[in-house]
Request: fold
Amino acid sequence: MDASQIPREQWAQVVEQTGGPVTYKKIAVQQPGPDEVLVNVKYSGVCHTDLHAMLGDWPIPTKLPLVGGHEGAGVVVARGEVVKDINLGDHVGIKWLNGSCLNCVFCNQADEPLCREALLSGYTVDGTFQQYAIAKAAHVARIPKECDLAAIAPILCAGITVYKGLKESAARPAIMGLYAVAIDGGDEKRRACLELGANTFIDYTTSNDITADVRAASLDGLGPHAILVIAAQEKPFQQAAKCIRPRGTIVCIGLPHEAMMSAPVFDTVVNMVTIKGSYVGNRADTAEALDFFRRGLIHAPYKTIGLSKLQDVYEMMQANRVTGRFVVDTGS
Reply:
């Protein structure tokens, strides 16, 4: 696609007021700045963060009007004049971290997600629920052309974030890999978790004692070495502190609205438990996660839906009726 083929208008889903709903409408196609690229977004995963952005229930204000989305996979169709290492036609991904200053104490130690000047796709800058989106060239994910753009879209946030959490947990796999215990609710999620490789599934909706069940599921009965809490509700964060084994690590990843994390000080100290937060991955984490996908080691279940149906996905999320990931097809 050359410059003459880039349209002036495009279809997008726009949050026009806090609380939503999103509005499917035509908006202008923006031009990239000197250090930016313009990406023809083909597919974009729908993350629970996108629902928070529409509802405005996080303590960080969103821009308004806002185009959400931060799992966008597409093709570079224009670039700024100082961009030299990305070519037109390259396949790239637009992630939660849209850009950072690249020169602060955090950026200089590969902690660019902690940059105080970070730009957040679909939150503080417009994201990927549109046919053409802009991102800083230094931060787009480089997608191998043999990878399916719809299938790789969820890796750009869900995949990278969980991968980063696993690294932060310092869990050490046995020779044949980690022993995974999945906790969720309902038969559909049971089937999905077991098909994806979980060794044990615990249904919190039917369990009489989550703590006992989790400990019993661990190979020695002492509890898991690491717990990744990715829930959208507060209760699992409190339960994790009761389930973790001595010298275990709890990694908080999910961001429920106004949730608190608490743990008994005595047990935390005498059992030498680590409790930590894990945010999104840096550029190196991104490259590693995408390479796992390229080699067929990651399988993220997804369903494709048209961009015009995004509000339906949000309503399903609020009703807790989503298994796997929805990926919107922008139709471009």
Observations:
- DSSP finds nine helices and 17 strands in the chain.
